[in-house]
Amino acid sequence: MRAAAIQMNSTEDRDRNLAVADRLVRAAARDGAALVALPEKWSVLGTPEQLAAGAETLDGPAISWARATARELQIDLVAGSIVEHVEGREKRSNTSVHVGPDGEIRATYRKVHLFDVEVSGTAYRESDGEEPGEELVTSALGSAPVAASAAAAGDDAIAAAAEPVELGMAICYDLRFPELFRILALRGAHVVTLPSAFTLATTRDHWEVLVRARAIENQCFVVAPNQIGAHPPGNRSGGRSMIVDPWGLVLALAPDDEGHVVAELDLERQRQIRATLPSLANRRPQTYAWPEQRVEAAV
Known about the structure:
Blueprint lengths: L1 E6 L6 H17 L4 E3 L10 H7 L6 H13 L2 E3 L3 E3 L8 E7 L5 E6 L5 E4 L2 E4 L11 E4 L3 H9 L3 H6 L4 E4 L8 H9 L4 E3 L6 H19 L2 E4 L3 E4 L3 E4 L3 E3 L5 E4 L5 E6 L2 H10 L14 H8 L1
Parallel strand pairs: 1-2, 2-3, 10-11, 11-12
Antiparallel strand pairs: 1-17, 3-5, 4-5, 5-6, 7-8, 9-10, 12-15, 13-14, 15-16
Helix pairs in contact: 1-3
C-alpha cells in the first residue's frame, strides 16, 4: 500500500488552503497513494480569533470537500485536523477525520492532549479555545467494507485477501505521549497518522526522534504530515513531513516547501518484524502499574 503525507503552509484563508490541499492530494493520488494524510489545522491556521471564525461542523466545506475528493479519487483520506464547531459546546475541538474511498466518514478523532506549553519564549494555550477529546480512535482502511461483505457472504478467500489494514489516529502534541500510541497498537493499528503543526524549534530538535521512536516501539508505520513556514500571528512550523516504517527507517522526508511525499508501506515486512522481534507480544501487562495504582494497592 502506498501512502502520502501532505505538507502545507496553511493560513487564515480557507479558500486558499482548500485550493492547495486539493492540488496536493490530487498529485499524491497520481503518484499512486491509496492513503493520503493532510496536516493539522490544514483548512484554517491563524490567531485564536481566526481559528474561531474558521471553525466548522463536520458537514462544513472542509470535510464536504474531503468526502467528495476521497470518493472521486478512490482513496482513504485523513483530513488532517480541522477546527471543529460542535453544537452546544462553547469551546471547539481539534478534529481529525478519516474518510474512506466511498466518501463516507469512517472515524473521527478529537485531539486528546492540548498544546499548553511555552516554546522559545512563545506561549501556546490551546485549551483557551479548545477542549480535549476523551476517546482514542482506530479505523479500517479501504478494504474493510469488501472484507466485511465477503465474510457475510461466506466467501473466505475474498475476505482474507481483503483483510483490512487498521489505522490509528493521533494529532501533533499527542506524539509526546507514548501510551496513546501503545494503546492504538494493541488495538491492532498497522499505520498511525499524525497530522501536525509542530513548531520550528521542536521540529528541528524533537520531531524525527519522536516519530521514529513511536514507530519502533509499536512496530507500526507512522505517516506524519506537518505544517511548514509562517502562520498568523507570526508562529512558524518546521515541516520535515515524513513516513517511517516499523523498523524506524525514514521512508520519505519532505523538503522545506509545500508539497507531498510518498512511500510504499510493506505490510508483509511489518508482519516479519513483529514475528521476529515480538516486543508487542512479549509485553507483561500484569507487572505494569501506574504510580497511583501502587499507592492504592499499598493502602
